[in-house]
Design goal:
single chain; alpha+beta; Sortase, Chain: A; 2 domains; 8-stranded mixed barrel
Length: 310
């Protein structure tokens, strides 16, 4: 039977010392290896990781620059192709539009821009003569008390005999409040009130109400409240799509939203034409505000059309 060897006291002490030294040796070697690995990491691996981080940051920055540049270029292309080119094309293809006018240089008298025809009038009072005796082609008219009406409106002629001699218009954006409009005006020089074209529709009818008035240089004070209407529409060209104005007729207020603006030659104007096409088989209730343009000249005509809204 196997019997284990029994160490003496001295042999046991030596063996313990040997085990301690062996353990210490391996522990020491492990510490050295760990230290060496740490130094190697510091010298080789860590710098590489740092360089990789800097490389990633640089790539990200370049990517942002490329994306931003691409978006800017695409925005410019869309602006040019969808806005600039169509607008230029429209103006280039139509001779009826007002030509582009260069900024007025300092030292010039704005009266130098008045058309030659106006200068030849020897400072006569301007009149909207292009509005006189206008009729729609192919339409038969009847004369009632000096007013020409389409024959199709004979049923309404009696009603029109009782219309008020004036009504009022308010344009908040132009600081015009309750300016007087003379109904069925025969005066084409509306110095003392705006003119409602003789025979055109009235606000309570489903067609176009034509209102004309003078304009002059924008620097001229608007004294319509004192009865001077020579500058009442000087800022009419500032009205834009979506602006509102109001007409007070027979005690009722009609609200209109600007639908379009147009510029044309005087000889092309017909105040009896409907400015908007039919909607659902009938014309809309509209008001057309009419004056000369550019402000201070009489070469072209500006129309601002508002559509009635509830």
């Amino acid at each position: 039977m196997f019997k284990p060897y029994k160490y003496t006291k001295e042999e046991s002490a030596i063996s313990c010392r040997n085990i301690d030294s062996i353990i210490g040796y391996y522990v020491n070697q492990a510490e050295k290896k760990s230290f060496k690995t740490s130094r190697q990491y510091t010298k080789t691996i860590a710098p590489n990781i740092k360089r990789d981080n800097s490389f990633n940051k640089g790539s990200l920055f370049k990517a942002k620059i490329l994306i931003s540049s691409f978006m800017i270029i695409m925005g410019i292309l869309i602006l040019v192709t969808r806005v600039v080119v169509p607008v230029v094309g429209i103006y280039a293809s139509s001779e009826d539009y007002m030509p582009v006018i260069a900024p007025i240089p300092s030292g010039f008298d704005a009266r130098d821009f008045v058309s030659v025809d106006d200068k030849d009038k020897n400072k006569e009072d301007f009149q909207f003569l292009e509005l006189s005796k206008k009729k729609l082609p192919g339409v038969e008219y009847v004369n009632v008390d000096g007013i020409e009406y389409p024959k199709a409106l004979e049923e309404k002629i009696e009603e029109r005999k009782n219309v008020p001699d004036k009504f009022y218009i308010t344009i908040p954006k132009l600081n015009i409040i309750d300016a007087v409009v003379e109904t069925n005006s025969k005066n084409f020089d509306p110095k003392h009130a705006l003119g409602h074209y003789n025979g055109s529709c009235l606000p309570d009818e489903a067609c176009n109400t034509f209102i004309f008035g003078h304009s002059t240089f924008k620097s001229t004070p608007n004294k319509y409240k004192k009865g001077d209407y020579t500058a009442v529409f000087a800022r009419l060209d500032e009205l834009e799509y979506g602006d509102e104005f109001f007409v007070n007729y027979r005690g009722k207020t009609y609200r209109y939203i600007v639908e379009l603006t147009k510029i044309d030659k005087p000889e092309n104007i017909n105040p009896l034409e409907e400015p908007l096409p039919k909607s659902l088989g009938k014309y809309d209730n509209t008001v057309e505000l009419f004056t000369c343009t550019p402000p201070g000249t009489t070469k072209y005509r500006l129309s601002v059309v508002g559509k009635y809204v509830e």
